[in-house]
């Protein structure tokens, strides 16, 4: 059986398809105000439990927070990492001798949502947000991170941001045992 179509019918069909546009395509390409870096930095992330002074918390927050990657840049780990070189250097610094830290325990770390920027760990070892550090005993590297509560037993695993895993020298597909500290 042979199907034939007239040129007029084909043009009419194409004209109808051209008028169909999914919502959001062809409109504004700007990001919603709530996802801009300024709004992210200004938005309170909840109460933070820490022994640090407000100035130390502000300094740690400047290190651990980064904007989400652009939607078009979601291809490689390097494109997903929106932290700056200065943030990476500051997050990798060893803790100061006068900084009081509490060891919260060990956890199995896996890659968290790679589209969430910054240095963070979501772990059942904390019940409230805070500032802390993760340590990789396999190579001695550590990173300053935001501590974010994760539902589950304390023996459950944790989710770590892509930049934090890279900073402590862990492959994104590994499941290493790391130590978690609260500042």
Automatic annotation (TrEMBL):
This is D-galactarate dehydratase. Residues 65-99 have a biased composition (Low complexity). Residues 1-18 form the signal peptide. Residues 65-102 are annotated as: Disordered. Keywords: Signal.
